[in-house]
From TrEMBL:
<dbReference type="GO" id="GO:0005524">
    <property type="term" value="F:ATP binding"/>
</dbReference>
<dbReference type="InterPro" id="IPR011009">
    <property type="entry name" value="Kinase-like_dom_sf"/>
</dbReference>
<dbReference type="GO" id="GO:0004672">
    <property type="term" value="F:protein kinase activity"/>
</dbReference>
<feature type="domain" description="Protein kinase">
    <location>
        <begin position="260"/>
        <end position="629"/>
    </location>
</feature>
<dbReference type="InterPro" id="IPR000719">
    <property type="entry name" value="Prot_kinase_dom"/>
</dbReference>
<protein>
    <recommendedName>
        <fullName>Protein kinase domain-containing protein</fullName>
    </recommendedName>
</protein>
<dbReference type="InterPro" id="IPR002575">
    <property type="entry name" value="Aminoglycoside_PTrfase"/>
</dbReference>
<dbReference type="Pfam" id="PF01636">
    <property type="entry name" value="APH"/>
</dbReference>
<dbReference type="InterPro" id="IPR051678">
    <property type="entry name" value="AGP_Transferase"/>
</dbReference>
Amino acid sequence: MTVRLDSAPNLRLNSYDPEAFNKLPSISDAVAKFDAIDGDSLVSTSFRELFLRHNMDRTFGLILLHRHFELDQNERLVSYGDTSVPWQLSKISKNIMPSNWLLSGDGAIRPYEFCYTPAMDEATGPNLANSDQQAFFDALIELLHKHKAEGLWGLCRYPGDGFPGRVEITEGRANINLRPEDYPKDMESRTAAWFFSPPLWDQKCNCGCRHQKWPSFKYPGVLEGQQATLTILISSMASTMAPSIKGFHPENIPGIVSDLRLNGTMASFCFGTADRPLSGKQCLIYAVQFPDGATWAVRVPAQANHLPPGAVTAFVEMEVSILKRIETSGFSRSPRLLGYNSGFDNPVGFPYIVSTWVEGTPAEWSDSIPSDRDTRNKFLRQMADITLELADCTQEWRPTTAGTYLTDLIDRKIVRVSNGQLPGIQLRDCFIQRALVPRVVHFPLEMSPFLVSHEDLSPDNIIVDNEYNIKGIIDWGFATLLPLQFAVYFPRILAIEPSQIDAPQPPDVAAFSLAFFQPSAVLQADRRYFTSYLSSRRDSLARSISLVLSTSDVDWRHLVFEAASSKGLHKWVAQRSWLLHGSGNGLQDLSSITLAKEVVKFLAGTVGQKSNLTRERILDAIKIEDDDLQR
C-alpha cells in the first residue's frame, strides 16, 4: 500500500457534538453551493468512481450536509422507521447508533445523525482499524478539498440493495421520509443522498429533500379571526436562523429603515424575524414595524452570498428597476418600493430593498383547496384580471420579434456551452432546441410588445385575505421583460411543470411525454374557466393572451422556451427527447430535424459571427458529417 506524504495526518473518530449539527447549512444554502460547483457532475463522476474504486459502494452513501432546525445540548436527531425527531438521551440511551457522519479537512470524522436499532444490527459505520476504509477516508477528504466542497458532503449508512428511495419533508421539528408510493404528484425536491452500488445507481435510487423557491407557510400578519403563525409545511424552512455571513449585520436593519421614514420614530423587528427571517430562494425577509403600526419589509439577498459581489448588486438593481417600472405604470398589486442600497458599504453590510408589507397569507391552492368551485372561480377571475392589468400597464415596444429573442437566447447558450461554461449540457441538444423555435413561436404575435412577467406566480407569492381576495403579489426578484407570448403563460397554480427537475430519465420517454401533459380533471376545469373569462374580455390584449393559452401545445411551448435560460430544465427536457411525443404538434421524434441547417443559420447570425466558433469545431461536437452541410 502506497502512503502519500500529504495524506490526512490524523484520521480519527470524534464524539457527537450538537454544536457541529447546529452549524450545518440550511437546505437552501447547501443546494446553492451544490449548484455553484456543478455538484451533479461531480457526484456522477468523481465521487462515484471513488466509492467504486475503494469498494465502499455497499458500505456508505454520499449525503448533502444540511439541517432543518437546531438541537439543544442534550438532544440528538434520531430516526426510527420513517421519521427523525430530536431525542433526549437521558430518556432513551440504548440501541442508538450513528447513521450519518461529517468529515473535516484535518481528518476528523464525527457523527451528526443517529438511528434507533433495537435489533443492534452489525456495525457498518467508519472503522479506522480497517486499512481499506482508512484509504477511502483519506481519498474522500482529499477530493472534497480539491473541489472546495468541505462541509458540503458527508457519509451515510448504505441502506441495502432493496432500498426504494425516500423524499424527506419537515413538519415542525420532525423529518418525515415518504416512500415512493406516497409521493404527492406535485412534490418538488432536490436529491440529498446518493448510493453508488449497481442495484441502486442503475435505478437512480436516492433520497430527496423537498425544496421550493418559496416554501408554503403562514405569512406573518394578523387577519380578523386568525392568529399570526409560522407553520412550516416543508423541509426547506420558510423561517430560518439568520446566517452567519462575514460583514452582514442584520441588527442594523431597524436603524436604516427608521432613517427612511424621516419623522424620528424608531422601527423594531416584528413577527420574530430578528432571529428567524423569512426565507426565499435568494433573499432573507425581515419585517419591521413602527409605533403607529406601519409595517415594512426588508429583503436582503444574503442567500446569494456564494455569488460575486457584482452579481448580487446586479440582482438587487434588476429587482429595483422592475419595482420602479411597475409602480410608475400604475399596477396596483405589487409592494411599493421605499428605499434600497445595492452596494455592500452600508450599516447592514449587504445590499437590501425596503418595501411596504402586504397583509394577508399566501394562497393555499391544490386540487382540493379551496374545495368549492365558487371560491376557486373567484380567485381565478382575480388572477386573470391581474394578468391583464400587468400586461396592460407594462407594455413596451421593441424592434425585436419573439422568434429572434428566443433564438438569441439559445445562440448565447451555444457559445457558453462551447466554451465549457455550462457543464452537463450537450451542444447537440442546443441545436435541437434551436430547430424547435419555429414550432414554439406564435407567428401572428411575432411583432407584439414586451411585457413584465413575474416569473414565479406560485401560491406562496399570492397574498390573500381569509375570503380569498387577493391583496398583493410579492417577490419580484425574478421578474423580467419578455415578448408578450412568452410573458403570459398560465400562473403556476395552473401550470404543468416537472415535479423534480433532477429526476432520472424515464424508461419509456414516449409514454412519459404523453402522460406528462395530461392535467387532472380539476386542473382542466380551472384552466377552462380562466381562459373563458379572459376570452369574455373584448380588448385586443385579452384576445392575444387567449390565443397563447388556448393552443393545445401551450405547455410544451412554454417548457421549451423556459429551457432556453434554465440549465436544469434544459437537461430535463433534453433527456426526454424534448417531450415531442406529448407536444401534440405533429413532430413525433427528432429524425426530421436537420441540425446541419441550424449550424449554417447560427454561424450566419449575429451571435454566431461574434463567437469565433468554427464550422469544424461545431460539427465535431454535435457529431454530424461535413457533407450534411451541403444538403
